[in-house]
Amino acid sequence: MAAIATIWNFQTAAFSFECIALPCSSLCLDFDDSGEVGDMIDDFSVVAFDAQVKVTHKDSGAVIGTAFLCDVILGDCGEFLEHPGFRELVRESVANARNTLDSLVVARISKLAA
Question: What pTM value is reported for the model?
Answer without folding.
Answer: 0.86
